[in-house]
Amino acid sequence: MTDRMFRLDGKVAVVTGASQGIGAAIAQAFAEAGADLLLVARRHGALTEFADKLRAGTGRQVVTVVADVTAGDTPTLIAERARATWSGIDVLVNNAYSSGGVLGPVLDLEDTVWDDVLAANVIAPFRLCRELVPLMAGRSGSSVINVVSGSGFLPSPGIGAYGVSKAALWMLTRQLAGELAPDVRVNALCPGTVSPDGEPAHQAHVDLLSLVPMGRLGRPKEMAGAAVYLASSAASYTTGEVVFVNGGRPW
Hints:
Elements: H1 2-5, E1 12-16, H2 21-32, E2 36-41, H3 44-58, E3 62-66, H4 74-85, E4 91-94, H5 111-132, E5 142-147, H6 160-180, E6 184-191, H7 203-208, H8 220-231, E7 242-245
Parallel strand pairs: 1-2, 1-4, 2-3, 4-5, 5-6, 6-7
């Protein structure tokens, strides 16, 4: 019985930012739990290669949409592809993001940095929810999972715009959880800093280790279990919540 609670058989999941890192790990775990997938990413080669690997390794149906989530027509493209392939969807994972690419004090940032992070981290998830939540109508156990950040809960030096945008995504999560209940659950997943093998990739990673009781960085696949939980019937009474998977770092 416990195993069945975490199965995703018969579900269709949309995952953005799915060609690498945490997005790919979530997609892999979903497929292994029985879900079919619609994967979204900007890089055609990487996305296609990963989708082929998933199909071969899990036997699940996997379709792709190569697109930037900030483009105005992307939600419509995803919805059209989902309708053409399935009767609806059950899970949306808003994982694609922008860091802004600029480090420094908030008041030194150009407007273009704010435009970039807000478009990718707030507006895009909102538009995707607006377009795709209607495809969840009449399907039992539907859910949205927004990938947030510890920087949205406590200020992080040098990445203020990113943190502000993730704080907004967390509030969007809570707002939608209240408005869409009881038909659709909406929760957030807050990963810690990750690297492919859990080892520091640069000095900034080394500097973080003293803040992490587990004494290492996370691996992308270690973030995926919480996403499976939030997508599954095991979380049937969980909405408007955030699950931290950060090695005990005190945000």
